[in-house]
Write a sequence for this structure.
């Protein structure tokens, strides 16, 4: 503490923030209260558009031209921030309150060396001498566990990896030893294993410096791991507030409950215990319902009561500062078992549809871009000896972080690139060397793709119906416009969108709805193999469940083979039959879901499993944090691709990991692991995730 | 009769523009009423800057159109009344009553005793006609070459970009002079260049329609035959001229004859502007080709031209519309420059560049013959720039 103040660090009381557009006032945050005590980490959870980032900007008093605080107060160490002058605010920002944003590259000045950027903070805020500032910068960079701090201080932001950049942003925030740190989705842009390391770091530094934290995230699991208390937001309001254990184990608001039911926790299963998606859509800020904002989507909605007047926060008796914005919280039986959704039979996988055999894809990259091929070239091995089979109505998950070669694999399969070596057999026909222009319509229509980014997947200047009809045209389906239109409307029915959407422009649709259109488009030619490239990772949690279920349902009906590319192991465990784990172009593990999620693991799978945050207090995880970043595919390590970060490396005698690429070993029925570890070591592995007995 | 005072001149000029005022008010009232339903055009009416720019531009567009129908002009732009030579603004025309002429030269007479006011009005028609059309041609060329350069990249991109740089580095004025030199005209180079440059809109239309409708041959074939037939005829009429080097179709089938001077203007405008358009389109294409909807089109086996023209181009329209407005402004100035050098348009043409050049010689004694077209040019280009600014600003907001 820099001064003698000993109350809550941040006290937000009945805060309301609105944005003023030329049409109307849009309330972004309403009647929002939260307090952050010294040394406490408070999580702010909610879906996109719920106002959580607006709260952070309100605290920084940085709402832009259109935003204004229309009610309530924000007190920082007892001083009302809205009464401070611009100069006083400038003093506080950066030295007392620091903020860490989502995109690390956008937070650093690309034209300035790291050291200089860090040293600016004490020089500006404390008028420290250059030497003092340098010492401090060096110390903070050491604190955020970056290797070779002196070299890092002397480099430019683009010379560092994403994870390192985010560490520098954290270091910069800590330079002035702020009392409050606001983290706005600090790890969303990072890979899971890197995210785990950054989260670990934030937690550790919070303890070391005694900093209070406001942690904004959409990921409940992450909040469970980092925060002491949490505040759940929905449509501009705080709906539930309390300590982590209270909210996770004794939730008192229907939205919180629905949220937990829609995320794939261990135990959920697509057939026996499907996810329960929240019905309906997130209300637009200017179309909020009267009374409870969650009312129209709530299972416990009571007409005449829940849709009247403003609803205040009620304290939950017996718990520590636990409050909920629900009129009926004392009437609802919170322990009632989940009414299980419709259960389905596990589909029997049919015959092999797709077979990859020793697929290789190498790229040649010219070392010198300007003078073309005359210089030396480097070979990037994007895919190395990929072999697997996929059967009819089977879901094969392909798991891996950025640079693991999963996108390259998808490109080769789709025919956008041709393979360097090996074969791809579609119905026993070789297609690895046939680029998409040379493929016949049937093959193209059979293999289709669902893309990751819902905001990018549809052409913004064409109506939804027209885009689906175009796919039908290309696949030669239907003889006339009328026929195709009819078929397009049927496809909209299939993805459960109203037929009126056919004439809408993509910008009038929400993310989940766009993703549904993307799915409809992929199934236009009755695709038999659908490559889904992280189809739900950009969607909100409540929408994720609905889209996932839709995919599963269509798959069941059409006996589609689904290749589900993802880095999110919770969703993979929920929906896939078999899992393939990739790292730097190699398949490191391949097996059924049960085999991959239970020991023996490949060391990378083990770390990945440990890194994924799980929003369940009953889950005990083994704590494995990987050192360093994923090596560049341009410059892979010799021997085993994972050896630079592997914690089991010392168990293999003779430095074999650094010399030789391990062989693909078959552990049990169809379970393959690419590792040098001995049988005995594999047998000794402990499960990473254990669900404590209830 | 006495000369008019300045106040009277202004009142009479304003009265003379009555049809323009009525049209402007109507246009603005209707647009304001429906602005929420008019997309980007409607949003323009939320920005004061954009509205001022739009008003200035539309003022000259209406003036040009009505001027073409002899509505606003007070005298024939070419007829000379010898007593009016270099007379100051507001000078009465002797014997006007007997001959049924307008009684005053509102903005005075030029050194050939022609009415400056009427010449300004007639000149606006030349500008309003040629500038947008020439810019449109430049865009067609720039887009047709920029899209593949940005989309495919590689050698093609390197080659086309180098070509664009080469043209940009060429001294423009020298190029203009070369184009109108009789020896060069005699070799037919301007005609051949026109033949080459004007084929781009046809290629553009053909590729655009074919890529979209090739899956429906029953619609595509008649559509293409119709469109290409009309465009082809227009094209041939445009480039072919009896007696010139390019004489492809017989005189009776030639729909219209574009004076070779105008053709030179077109060629030079397209030549100068298309490399810049090429660069903008190339950059936009490089950005947009990484989007998922482009990947989606690729994975369903769309042809490359469909992807470029129907997936990429429509989504690049925002910056292109803004640039189009700015570029009409440049073209207007370019026309002025060409006229000023006495290139392209015939010497008696009332266009602003030529009239400024005519007025220049006696500028120190008689200011008005040059200042009137100069101010007109200024206001139109200012209007176009403000309009572009307004559009850019409004397209960023939502």
């Amino acid at each position: 503490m820099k001064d003698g103040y000993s109350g809550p660090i941040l006290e937000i009381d009945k805060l309301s923030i609105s944005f003023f557009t030329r049409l109307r006032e849009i309330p972004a945050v309403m009647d929002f209260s939260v307090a952050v005590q010294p040394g406490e980490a408070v999580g702010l959870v909610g879906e996109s558009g719920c106002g959580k980032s607006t709260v952070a900007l309100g605290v920084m008093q940085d709402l832009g031209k259109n935003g204004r605080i229309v009610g309530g107060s924000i007190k920082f160490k007892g001083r009302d921030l809205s009464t401070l002058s611009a100069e006083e605010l400038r003093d506080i920002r950066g030295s007392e309150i620091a903020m860490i944003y989502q995109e690390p590259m956008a937070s650093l000045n690309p034209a300035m060396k790291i050291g200089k950027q860090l040293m600016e903070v004490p020089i500006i805020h404390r008028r420290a001498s250059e030497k003092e500032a340098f010492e401090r910068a060096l110390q903070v960079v050491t604190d955020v566990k970056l290797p070779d701090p002196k070299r890092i201080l002397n480099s430019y932001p683009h010379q560092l990896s994403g994870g390192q950049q985010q560490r520098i942003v954290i270091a910069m925030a800590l330079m002035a030893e702020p009392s409050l740190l606001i983290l706005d989705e600090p790890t969303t842009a990072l890979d899971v294993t890197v995210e785990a390391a950054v989260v670990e770091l934030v937690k550790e530094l919070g303890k070391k410096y005694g900093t209070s934290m406001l942690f904004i995230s959409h990921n409940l699991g992450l909040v469970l791991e980092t925060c002491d208390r949490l505040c759940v937001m929905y449509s501009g309001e705080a709906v539930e507030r309390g300590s982590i254990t209270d909210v996770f184990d004794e939730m008192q608001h229907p939205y919180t409950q629905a949220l937990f039911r829609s995320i794939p926790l261990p135990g959920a299963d697509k057939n026996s215990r499907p996810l329960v998606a929240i019905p309906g859509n997130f209300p637009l800020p200017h179309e909020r319902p009267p009374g409870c904002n969650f009312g129209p989507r709530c299972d416990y909605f009571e007409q005449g009561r829940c849709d009247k007047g403003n609803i205040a926060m009620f304290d939950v008796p017996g718990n520590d500062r636990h409050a909920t914005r629900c009129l009926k919280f004392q009437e609802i039986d919170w322990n009632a078992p989940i009414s299980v959704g419709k259960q389905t039979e596990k589909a029997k996988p049919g015959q092999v549809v797709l077979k990859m055999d020793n697929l290789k894809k190498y790229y040649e990259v010219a070392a010198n871009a300007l003078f073309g091929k005359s210089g030396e070239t480097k070979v990037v091995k994007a895919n190395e000896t990929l072999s697997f089979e996929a059967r009819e109505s089977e879901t094969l998950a392909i798991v891996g972080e950025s640079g693991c070669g999963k996108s390259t694999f998808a490109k080769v399969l789709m025919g956008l690139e041709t393979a360097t070596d090996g074969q791809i057999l579609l119905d026993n026909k070789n297609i690895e060397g046939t680029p998409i222009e040379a493929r016949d319509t049937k093959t193209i229509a059979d293999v289709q793709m669902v893309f990751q980014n819902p905001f990018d997947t549809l052409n913004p200047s064409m109506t939804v119906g027209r885009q689906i009809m175009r796919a039908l045209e290309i696949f030669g389906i239907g003889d006339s416009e009328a026929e195709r239109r009819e078929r397009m409307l049927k496809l909209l029915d299939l993805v459960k969108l109203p037929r009126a959407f056919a004439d809408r422009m993509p910008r009038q649709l929400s993310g989940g709805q766009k993703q549904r259109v993307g799915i409809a488009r992929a199934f236009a030619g009755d695709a038999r193999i659908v490559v889904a490239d992280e189809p739900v990772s950009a969607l909100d949690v409540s929408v994720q469940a609905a889209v996932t279920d839709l995919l599963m349902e269509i798959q069941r009906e059409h006996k589609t083979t689904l290749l589900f590319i993802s880095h999110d192991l919770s969703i993979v465990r929920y929906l896939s039959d078999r899992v393939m784990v990739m790292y730097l172009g190699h398949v490191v593990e391949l097996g059924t879901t049960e085999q991959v999620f239970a020991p023996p693991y490949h060391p990378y799978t083990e770390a990945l499993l440990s890194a994924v945050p799980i929003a369940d207090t009953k889950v005990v995880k083994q704590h494995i944090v990987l050192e360093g970043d994923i090596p560049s595919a341009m410059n892979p390590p010799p021997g085993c691709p994972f050896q630079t970060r592997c914690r089991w490396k010392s168990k293999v005698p003779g430095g074999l990991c650094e010399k030789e690429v391990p062989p693909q070993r078959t552990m049990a029925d169809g379970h393959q692991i690419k590792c040098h570890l001995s049988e005995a070591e594999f047998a000794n592995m402990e499960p990473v995730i254990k669900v404590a007995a209830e | 009769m006495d000369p008019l005072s300045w106040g009277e001149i202004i009142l009479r000029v304003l009265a003379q523009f009555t049809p323009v005022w009525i049209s402007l008010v109507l246009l603005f009232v209707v647009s304001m009423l429906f602005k929420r339903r008019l997309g980007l055009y409607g949003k323009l009416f939320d920005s004061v800057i954009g509205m001022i720019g739009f008003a200035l531009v539309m003022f000259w567009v209406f003036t040009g159109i009505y001027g073409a129908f002899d509505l606003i002009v007070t005298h024939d732009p070419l007829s000379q009344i010898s007593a009016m030579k270099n007379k100051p603004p507001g000078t009465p025309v002797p014997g006007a009553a007997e001959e049924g002429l307008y009684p005053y030269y509102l903005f005075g007479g030029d050194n050939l005793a022609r009415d400056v006011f009427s010449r300004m009005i007639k000149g606006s028609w030349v500008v309003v006609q040629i500038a947008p059309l020439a810019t449109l041609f430049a865009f067609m060329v720039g887009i047709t070459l920029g899209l593949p350069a940005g989309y495919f990249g590689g050698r093609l991109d390197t080659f086309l970009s180098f070509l664009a740089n080469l043209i940009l580095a060429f001294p423009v004025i020298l190029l203009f002079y070369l184009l109108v030199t009789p020896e060069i005209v005699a070799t037919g180079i301007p005609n051949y260049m026109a033949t080459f440059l004007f084929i781009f809109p046809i290629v553009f239309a053909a590729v655009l329609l074919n890529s979209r409708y090739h899956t429906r041959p029953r619609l595509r074939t008649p559509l293409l035959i119709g469109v290409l037939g009309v465009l082809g005829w227009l094209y041939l009429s445009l480039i072919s001229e009896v007696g010139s080097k390019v004489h492809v179709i017989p005189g009776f089938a030639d729909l219209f004859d574009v004076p070779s001077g105008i053709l030179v203007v077109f060629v030079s405008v397209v030549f100068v502007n298309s490399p810049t358009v090429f660069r903008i389109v190339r950059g936009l294409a490089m950005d947009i080709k990484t989007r998922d909807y482009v990947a989606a089109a690729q994975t369903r086996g769309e042809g490359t031209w469909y992807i470029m023209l129907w997936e990429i181009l429509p989504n690049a329209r925002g910056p292109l519309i803004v640039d189009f407005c700015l570029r009409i402004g440049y073209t207007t100035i370019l026309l002025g420059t060409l006229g000023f050098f006495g290139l392209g348009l015939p010497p008696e043409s009332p266009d602003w560049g030529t009239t400024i050049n005519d007025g220049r010689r006696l500028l120190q004694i008689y200011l008005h013959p040059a200042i009137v077209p100069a101010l007109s040019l200024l206001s139109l280009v200012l209007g176009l720039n403000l309009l572009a600014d307004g559009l850019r600003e409004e397209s960023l907001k939502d």
Notes: Chain B touches chain A through 19 residues (CB under 8 Å). The radius of gyration of chain B is 24 Å. The beta strands of chain B are 91-92, 104-105.
